[in-house]
């Protein structure tokens, strides 16, 4: 099991470019299946989750050629419409392929993705939307069998502006020859990126970025085209916070400033000075940061993915902060690890109360999930001394070369293979004693 070894206390200073968005790459990779041609995608992050996506797409019949951040997908032939259970379990967001497979082949078989580290992650809104569009859905032996041969025009009103459900409806409607409207749609920037991609491919989607989206389904799409994935707004927010938590000074290139504004406003409220240029952002954090309150909301509210990361910074701000997590029901697991580094935090239902400390203490901690793991990296950058963060596989799922980027910015962080922490040693000795 890989770990990060971080000798913290250094300022994060310098200039870096962001990578492509994980949460935009995944639905757009799925959308390439709509094309009976060859698609070239640029700025695709080289991370665990995109690699899983390539594996599933090849099982469906695609030929995928990956050269660093450029991916060429030949989806002229799709000869399978089943997403393997083990890959669904490895990456729950592969459910996003269902809509694309349905559009292309009119059938799709997949299993319930199952929960993950931050919540139950149901897909009831996806299924309810499909059924109301006349898509035939059967459940047998834990598998969901879909058939869209009798799909109809329709208007879906989502109970909750679910990002995945919005994306899955857009994908299922794109080659349906039907007209589908989505009300209370998610408004995240990743939905706009998906719309731009589908329209460049030859589809017809409008309204993304608002809560009303319209899809005029086509019969088929056959073209050769290329598209550049938008920058990763959560990685950018994470890098900004790495400078904030170390009283540093960072300049990030390849930024769509309008995507990151909710995070910028919070960091300014905490006392950071931020300059926005065309596609660059500069943050300086010379003084002691101030506590502030935080509520996660669907876009354009404060993004839930930044909650653990900004909370880590609030952990060393002056004063007490109240955080309310409104999107996922179990997104505070990282706090128990932060407390091992000295954080003063209590959880009351959806709220977490964090009383700022002077500085984190180095410790041996374990990543609990993707963004919770990133929160621990930031705390380790702040702590003077050696912190070991194990289970970093979670972090490698969603951040491209995070340690390399941070080293370029002055951090003393490196990956250690096979570092096991006390708990695992105890378990190993217990096994040896009683085997
Ligand atoms: C996407 O997940 C992102 N993942 C998440 O990022 C992000 O946190 C989330 O959107 C919200 O912005 C990808 O894009 C791959 P949702 P998604 O459907 O689509 C409930 C990260 O760290 N819900 O908007 O799964 C659900 O349980 C990840 O990069 C239902 O109840 O999010 C959650 O409480 C984490 N029924 C809320 O809605 C459904 O059918 C938001 O989920 C679907 C969702």
Written description of the protein model:
Helix 5 packs parallel to helix 6 and helix 10 runs parallel beside helix 12. A hairpin with a 5-residue loop joins strand 11 and strand 12. The strands form 6 sheets. A 4-stranded mixed beta sheet has the order 21-22-1-23. With 435 residues, the protein is of the alpha+beta class. The chain starts with a strand and ends with a helix. Bound molecules: ligand EPZ.
Which ligands accompany this protein? ligand EPZ
Principal-axis shape equals: globular
Roughly how many Å apart are the termini?
Answer: 23 Å
Query: What is the subunit arrangement here?
Result: single chain
Give helix % range: 25-40%
Tell me the number of strands. 23
Give the integer mean of the pLDDT values.
Answer: 95
Spatial ordering of strands, largest sheet: 21-22-1-23
Largest sheet: 4 strands, mixed
Q: What's the alpha carbon Rg, rounded to whole Å?
A: 22 Å
Q: Enumerate the spans where pLDDT stays under 50 for 5 or more consecutive residues.
A: none
Beta-strand percentage? 15-25%
- Alpha-beta classification: alpha+beta
The DSSP helix count reads: 15
Task: Using brief descriptors, characterize the structure shown.
single chain; 35% helix; 15 helices; 435 residues; binds ligand EPZ; 4-stranded mixed β-sheet
